[in-house]
Design brief:
Distance between the termini: 60 Å
Helix content: 25-40%
Order of helices and strands: EEEEHEHEEEEHH
Strand content: 25-35%
Strand order of the largest sheet: 8-2-1-5-9
Number of helices: 4
Largest sheet: 5 strands, mixed
Length: 158
């Protein structure tokens, strides 16, 4: 009998959708915000983490930071195999261009359950709206400052 997944990661329009499929902490399997955690952690990823190939490919584009904690992490958990974690609530949408992975982050195709990239209509609608609002805000900021927002990130004086 197959194990029940505790978390799933999918891709839609260049965004990662990290979703907890378990609402409460389960000893030795997953930690959820109900326990006071700052995010979600799934242990034994080969059993309890589902990820689409599209999501795995997109995760490879996330910049790896210098800190042990990042917006997203996939790491060895001594004595317990690998663990996958993200900061935030039970469902999180991430734009790889605006997040940073933990220093030890490494995508591990062989240590997860490959699942179809089946994004719900509700999640698609949320991401579509997020992209639209982000584009509107970017245009407003550029108009107000007279400087393209792309130059802010580059540190350019042009």
């Amino acid at each position: 009998m197959a194990q029940k997944l505790h978390a799933r990661v999918l891709e839609y329009r260049g965004h990662l959708l990290c979703e907890s499929l378990t609402f409460n902490t389960i000893r030795d399997e997953c930690v959820r915000p109900d326990s006071g955690a700052k995010g979600c952690v799934t242990f034994q990823t080969e059993k309890f983490l589902g990820a689409s190939q599209e999501a795995l490919d997109l995760m490879r584009t996330i910049p790896v930071g210098a800190e042990e904690v990042g917006n997203i992490a996939w790491f060895n958990n001594p004595g317990e195999g690998t663990a996958f974690a993200w900061l935030g609530g039970l469902c999180v949408v991430m734009d790889p261009a605006t997040v940073e992975a933990a220093a030890t982050f490494k995508v591990r195709d062989d240590l997860c359950v490959i699942v179809p990239n089946e994004v719900t209509a509700e999640a698609k609608n949320f991401v579509d709206q997020l992209i639209e609002v982000t584009a509107q805000k970017k245009a407003e900021l550029e108009a107000a400052s007279g400087t393209p927002t792309a130059l802010w990130a580059s540190g350019s004086d042009e």
